[in-house]
Amino acid sequence: MAPITRSLALGLLACFAAPAAAKKEAFQMIDGPASIVKGTAGYVADAMSKLSDGRQLAIVASLGPRHVGKSALLNQVFGAKFDDKAAAGVWISPATTNKDVLLLNAMPAESADSELTQKRLATMCASVADCLVLNAWHTTSGRPTTATVDILGALFSEQLRQASEGAGTQRSLVLYALHGAEAGGLNKSQLAELQAQVAQIWASMPKPPGLAGAKLGDYFDFEYVGVPHARAAAAEHKESVAALKERFGGGAEAAALKQEYSKVIDLENFAVLLEQQWSDACAEADDGLAATREQMRACYLASQALFGALATAEAQLAKWAAQVAKKRTVPAFGTQGRRLLARTFAAYDEGTAACEPSSKFVATQRAKLSAQLKVELARQFNDQVRMLNVEAMSKMRELMLLTVARMGVVQDWQLPNMQNGIERWWTGKLAELVIPELALNLVPLKADLSARLTQYGNRFVSSATFQVQALQYLAEKAKDRKEAKGAKGMAISYGATTAVRTAGTGNLQSFASYANGPFTANFMLANDRDLAESAGSSGAAPPTFKIQPKINFDIDL
């Protein structure tokens, strides 16, 4: 854009006056045969004749599929008279709400054989427009359609081409308008997904020499706007249109028309420049278009497969995360994690099966999927290891308190035995958590636990606090036994006593007993072979080994 004087505009009007401009009707600048229509220069001069001295011409171009509502949006925001059913081509019109804005409405042909494709129209508009309105249907997932991906690819290619030819970091505003959006607008997840998709398309674009590190933010400012349905959500639709009117109102100083977006196009050379840009866009069709289209297709399929596979995996990861947050380990976490990785990668590979096996973007997206999953799985693994460590310390404390309760002290030789038992338990539990694909180093984890247990045991046993806790432990156990004792009554249990005889006289007896929890085992050695009363009335000697049933009565008073 350059300063345009009123005298120049009026001079052009006298030479190229166009009846449509006086009526403010839209003018077809590029027709069906894909050629610049005569009279374009005169129409532009007439349409912009009211441009103030010293002001600049701003160009807003609208792109997108047919019947999405892009013509209606331009009419409502800028007061234009575009027809959504108009023939394929590029239509232009002045904005009645802002006399410094010229509108371009790109209408792609529905025939695949026509040169009026989305890519060529987008390439031409990107070379001249300050602001590009990208129209698309709002979807539940928020992911861009194939047509949108093609348009973005064309915009990015043109911007990179200009930069490689010395234009520098010329910036453009892209207003991403999602038609049919919900009344509440875009939610955070949909917005984040759209932004990620746009960034991925930019990353997939082949960069010219010297621009390998080019960043999307250096060339484009993206804004995402939800446009609710005009009938289903009439009130919300009016609000969105009013907000856009305010942004584009106020002449060349409008909030959406910053000086940094200006392409600095002279009004008198506008038609000539458009013709040259359109010629370049059409000539580029036979030079690498197939490769670029295949890259865009691979980008779209890989992005769709990535988000689909990741969404399914994240649902399962969220369930596990909720369980871990409640301080509960996930049963067979290692096995389930391996299965999750296998299912997710299989879903992604199935979604990208139609792409070229050598596609770098497909491989990059798969690596990104793998990294995201492994980061979350590793986080949950580490959280569960910390839970095991806490449980191991608790077990160490319980063992020491139990030993003090029984023996009054913990001997030095007992601490290593306790620690070894706990480490064996910990190692077994850790094996259930390990996912080999994460390639985690477990040696430091084991060494850390061993050091913690050793330090905890040595410090705790030698402290006065330990003795107090031992006494408290005994008191709690006594209280538990008293509460478990319950009401007064009588309990009946059964047992058996065994005895082995030896030769000899007299009445020598011994008794051995072993107790472990509620179970007891008793053994008795008796030497009463030659006692008269042992033979009984039959006179027979007692057997060498005998089992004598017993019944016990435990009475709680």
Please tag this protein with its features.
557 residues; alpha/beta; disordered N terminus; 4-stranded mixed β-sheet; 16 helices; elongated
User: Which stretches of 5+ consecutive residues score pLDDT under 50?
Assistant: 1-23, 285-291, 514-519, 531-535
The number of helical elements comes to 16
Major sheet: size, sense and barrel closure?
A: 7 strands, mixed
Distance between the first and last residues' Cα: 105 Å
Percent range of helical residues? 40-55%
Q: Based on CA inertia axes, which overall geometry fits?
A: elongated
Secondary-structure element order, as H and E?
Answer: HHEHEHEEHEHEHEHHHHHHHHEEEHE
- Quick one: how many beta strands? 11
Average pLDDT metric = 76
Question: Reading side by side through the largest sheet, how are the strands ordered?
Answer: 1-3-4-2-5-6-7
- Taking all Cα atoms into account, the compactness measure Rg is 42 Å
Portion in strands: 15-25%
By helix and strand content, what is the structural category? alpha/beta
Write the layout of secondary structure elements.
Layout: H1 6-16, H2 19-22, E1 27-30, H3 40-47, E2 58-63, H4 70-78, E3 89-94, E4 101-107, H5 118-128, E5 131-137, H6 146-167, E6 172-181, H7 188-204, E7 220-228, H8 234-248, H9 270-283, H10 289-325, H11 333-351, H12 360-407, H13 414-433, H14 443-461, H15 464-485, E8 489-501, E9 508-516, E10 519-527, H16 532-535, E11 545-556
Parallel strand pairs: 2-4, 2-5, 5-6, 6-7, 8-10
Antiparallel strand pairs: 1-3, 3-4, 8-11, 9-10
